[in-house]
Amino acid sequence: MKVDLIIQNGHILTMEGKGVGFIENGAVAIKGNTIQGVGTIDEIKRAYQAERVIDATNKLVMPGLIDAHIHTGIAIFRGVAQDMSNWMQKGLWPFQKHLRAEESVIGSMVNIMEGIKAGTTTFCDYDGRMDLIVENYRKIGARARVAELVNEIPDNVGDLPVGELYPFDSSIGNTKLKRNLDLYENHHESEDGRISVILGPHGPDMMSLELLNEIKAQGDKLNTKLHMHVAQGDREIDQMAKRYGKRSIDFLDEHGFLNERLIAVHLTEATNEETALVAKRGAGMIYCAGSIGIIDGLVPPVYHFIQSGGTAGLGSDQAPGNNCNNMFNEMKFAAILNKVKLADPRVFNATMALRMATIEAAKVMGIDHEVGSLKKGKKADIIIVNLQDPSFFPIYTKPIRNIVPNLVYSARGHEVETSIIDGKVIMENRNILTIDEISTIENAQKVAEEIAVRSEKDILEAKSDILDMVTEGLL
Amino acid sequence: MKVDLIIQNGHILTMEGKGVGFIENGAVAIKGNTIQGVGTIDEIKRAYQAERVIDATNKLVMPGLIDAHIHTGIAIFRGVAQDMSNWMQKGLWPFQKHLRAEESVIGSMVNIMEGIKAGTTTFCDYDGRMDLIVENYRKIGARARVAELVNEIPDNVGDLPVGELYPFDSSIGNTKLKRNLDLYENHHESEDGRISVILGPHGPDMMSLELLNEIKAQGDKLNTKLHMHVAQGDREIDQMAKRYGKRSIDFLDEHGFLNERLIAVHLTEATNEETALVAKRGAGMIYCAGSIGIIDGLVPPVYHFIQSGGTAGLGSDQAPGNNCNNMFNEMKFAAILNKVKLADPRVFNATMALRMATIEAAKVMGIDHEVGSLKKGKKADIIIVNLQDPSFFPIYTKPIRNIVPNLVYSARGHEVETSIIDGKVIMENRNILTIDEISTIENAQKVAEEIAVRSEKDILEAKSDILDMVTEGLL
Prior knowledge:
By secondary structure, chain A is α/β, with parallel strands linked by helices. Helix content of chain A is about 40%, strand content about 20%. In chain A, about 65% of the residues are buried. Chains A and B meet through helix 3, helix 10, helix 13, helix 16 and helix 17 of A and helix 3, helix 10, helix 13, helix 16 and helix 17 of B.
C-alpha cells in the first residue's frame, strides 16, 4: 500500500496496552492524517511504500503529548504572581483587568508555541473568548479541544474582597453560554476534526444552579463533556458553603453532575471520600501538579483518585500560576510531588506520569479513539525526540530499559525535534513551520509592555508581595 | 582601559547584595579570566574598550550556575534505578560492580556536557578515581572543585545485606586518602585556579573514627573544606547506631567535625534539632532536591537549616538517582517541594532558589571570593540566556519584574546560549567549543552497551522492581 510518510529506525513507545508499548527500532506508516501501521521495520516495509521517509535512528517516536487543561489566554502574565499570597487578587488581577480580548489572543499564540516546542500536540484550552483564541490553533496547526469559560460573574470580580459572595448576573451567564454554544456550532469537528469543542462551566461556585443545569442539559443534548474546575481552592469551598451550605462535590453529586461527562479539574480541596466518590461516579480528573504546587503549596489527591479506579490526565494550567506550559515539567512534578506526599519512591512511577500525558489524558478528554497512542486508524499526532541529547544518555534496552525514566525525569522538552499533527509536519529541527516564531514573540512582547503601562496604577495600589520584592531588589 | 570582551545590552543579574542585583540593559567587561566591571552600558563604555563585543539584546547575563554536589562518575547509569525500593543495591549496584575506572570517566564527560548545556559552570564533583575524572574538566574547560570519595569499605559492599555493619579495611582507607591527597598535590589551583581540590570523606558511617580524624587533621593542615554526606539515609543512621550507639550528627559534633570546614550533604534524616545544630556550628549544607525526592520520596530539612541561620547550596547528585544534572531542574524542585512541605506558596521563593544555585552555593564551597556573582575582580564565569524563548515570554521590568520567577519556574536550561568560564567562551550558540559533542556521546553509548552485556547476569539475578516492569511491558 502507498502511504505518505514512514518514520523508521527509531525506538517507539506506542502507549498501547497497560504500559508504554515499547518497540525497538520500529517504524510508523502514515497516510493523510491517519496512522496506517506501527510495528517492526520489516513489518512496515513489507506492507507500505512511502512518498517520504524520516529516519529516526537514535530517536524516539511516540504520541504527541496532551495538555489536558490550559488557559492560554492569560499566558501574557507569566511570572507576575509567584511566591505570594492572594496570587489571583493581588498578583494577576491588577494586570488582567486591563487585558483586551485581542491581546489575550496574541499572548495565547506564544503559549501554544511553547507547548508545541515541548512536545504538546493536543491543547485542551479552556478560557474566555475562545472564539478568538481558536483561530490560533487553526493557524498553527495544533489539535485543540476547546471550551469557553462560562460563568455569570462580572469581569471585575477580582476587585471583590475575598469572603464575599460572588454576585451572579444571568445576562453574563447567557452571553457566555451562548459563546460556548456558538463555538460548538462554528468550530466543532472543523479542520478535519482537528478542532473540537466541549462545554466549559467555570466552577460550581461561579454561576447559579439554574445555569449549571442548563449547561448540563446542553451537554446531554450535544453528547459532550463538561470541562470544569471542581474543589479547586478554599475560596470555592467557602462560596459553596455560604451559598448552599454544602461542599462542592456533595452539591454536584446531588444535582447529577458526577458522571462520565464531567472532567473534574484540580480537586485540590477534595477529601479522600469525595475524591473516591468522583472516581466511582465515572468522572475524569485533571491534575495540574506545577500550578497547584506553586500557587497553593498543595498536592491534590490524584493518586487516591487513581487508586479509587478513576482515570486522570495531566494539565499545565496557566502561565501566571505554573509559569510554564510544558508537559515534561508536569510529568516530573506529578511524579516527585506524589512520591514525597506518600513518602514512597515507588509510587507515581515514570510510566504512570507518561500515560497521564498521553493515553490517559485522551481518555479523560474523550478523544482516546483518535489520539493518545500510536495505533492503526488513529490520527497521526507524533513527536520525534532526539535520544542523543545528554539528558537521555545512555540508552539501555537490554536487560532493562531506561528510556521512559529518562524521558520523564531528565528530558525537558527541547529534545523534541519534530512534531507531526494530524499527519502534517508542524515542527521540524525545532522550527515551527506554520508561523514566524520571532515576530510572533516580538509582537506579543510589545503588547505586554503596553498592558504594563495601562496596569501600572493598579499594580502599585495592590501592594503585593512581589511588588515589595522588586522594591527591595529581591527580583 | 583595554579589555578582551564586553557583553552589552542584556539584562543583568549580578547576584550581589541580598537579592539578585538586577541591572536593566547593562554591560560586563572582562579581561583575561577576570571581570573588570559590571554596570550600565554608559558606565562600562566610558571606562573600557574591548577587543570583542557580544551583543546581549533580549538576553540575560548572569553568573554561571554552581552544581555543589555531583557524582559524574556514575552518570553512565542514568535511569537504571528509578521508582523502586533498594535503588542502590538492586538497581545501581548490579551495573556498577562491572564499571571500570576508564568507563566511568567516559560517562562523566557526557554528564559534564549536560551540565554546561544547562548553564552550570562550576562542578563540585565528588567521586572515586577523581584523578582520572579531573582530566575531563581540564579538557572541556569547566571550573571544578573536586574531591576523591574516601571510605574504607570494599568495592563489593553493594553485595552486603542491608542491616549488616560495613566491614572496614584500613588499607582501602589509606589508598583512597592518599588518592585525595595526591589529587590535592597534583591538581589544586591548577589551570590558573580553575581546578581546585578539597577533601571528600564519604560519610561518617563509611570509615573508622581513626580515618575520619586523619582526614580532619589533613583538612586543618591544608586549610580546606570537607565535602561529606551526613545523615543521608536511614542506612547511615542504622550503621552509626550499631557501631557507636549514636546518630550521625551527635557523633560528628562530639568529635569536632561540625564547623565551617564541613560541607554537609543531604541531612535527609536530620531532625530539626540536629539541623539547627549543624547550622549553628557554621557548617554549610547542600540540598539535592531531585535526587532525594525521587530516590527516597523525602524533602530534607533545608528550609529549617536556612531559617536556623545556615548557608545552603543546591546540588544535582547523580544521574541514576535524580536522572539529570541540571540546575534549572534543581531550582524548580527545591522551590516546589518546600512549598508543598510547608503548605505555603510564599516559602522558598524563586530568588532563594536562584541564590542557592549561585552565590550561596559559592559560599558553601568556599569559593565566593571567586565566583557566584558578577563583581569586579571575580572570575569571569558568565552565562548568556535567550529571553526570546517562549518560556520567558513576556519580560516585564516595570513596575514589577518577572525574569527571576520565569528563570526558576519556567526555563529549563536549553535557553542558555553562551557559557563563558574563566574568561573563555566554552559554549556558543549552544555548541560546546572544546570537545566534539556527538562523538563523545556515541563513544560513551558504546561503552554503556558493553557494560550492560557484562552486567546482564547480575541484573537478572537482582530481580529488581525495574526488571519486573520491563518484563511486564511497563517500560
